[in-house]
Fold:
Amino acid sequence: MHKKLFIPGPVDVRPDVLEKMATKQIGHRTKEASELQENIEKKLQKVFKTKNHVLISTSSGTGLMEGAMRSFIKEKAAVFSCGAFGDKFYKICKANGKAADICKKEMGNGFTTQEVVDFLKRDDYDLMTIQHNETSTGVINPIGDIIREAKKLNPEIIVVVDAVSSLAGMDIPCDEWQIDVLITSSQKCFGLPAGISFASVSDRAIEKAKGIENRGLYFDYLTLYKYNLEKHQYPSTPTLSHMFALDYQLDLILEEGLENRFKRHSELAEIVREFGEEYFKLFVKDPNYRSDTVTCIENNRGVDIADLNLKLAEKGYMISNGYGELKDKTFRISHMADYTKEDIVGVLEAIKEVLKLNGDE
Structure:
């Protein structure tokens, strides 16, 4: 039996989108391939709300994260982390020999603007990373305000934002918020299979990269930018199957309307939060820091999450255990991509049936 995935990626993909993956292949150095990539970029710019180039990578978002650290850090990075995926940026820096300091926030909490500014004053950082949406905890950071103040302090700083689990599900106006590099992946809010990722990149970031050596090869942003600018192609062999599906799915996203899509995600999030507050506790206590794409619920009932998932599988559903040190202490329910109210109510009712929950408890 297929299990409908309410994990924070990959999520279920519409059958008509999956069918586009089976489109007959074309030569990846042909005019048709260039037209396909150019069309995709124009649509992605609308979703990213940017005039910057949007680059495509045949990889998960981690590849573009690593490429950004190699391409844009010249001296030292400030990494702001409120969970496991924030920590990943720091690990990438260290693995690539890049100097970095990490500012860690207790899990379940997001950063304030003042905390970020105070940390940036410690050293002459030329790049900072921050999560828009921390997938492991369901925390969002107020990155619009944060970036504005960070650039007042240091106008030259390059800002790299991880929006892997929020872009196309929440409003992230890239240009308005002065984001230099905005990274996301296909398997979450875009509602596509995993294996392709995207990053918008500002001209100022590209200019900086020109003065940085040893940027790597496969994920070098200058190479990705050059091929996109000159040919609307990918420097290596692209995943054309994903691109066919992406081109189609972007039409569906834009047809729904971005504001309508954001509103739907917000409404689904509220349904899950109400469930979490009624039967458990929400891991993120401050409502201003709660994600609209994934909700992390505190397992204060001591439920065996693995056993819960086994029983949910019999009903055709799957949720996610807590991530890393939060395993069994929390569980996560995603409400992203193309899910509807009926989908969300279905999985929540299944959980209540398995755990024999009712409103009188």
Remarks:
- The chain has a mean pLDDT of 97.
- DSSP finds twelve helices and 15 strands in the chain.
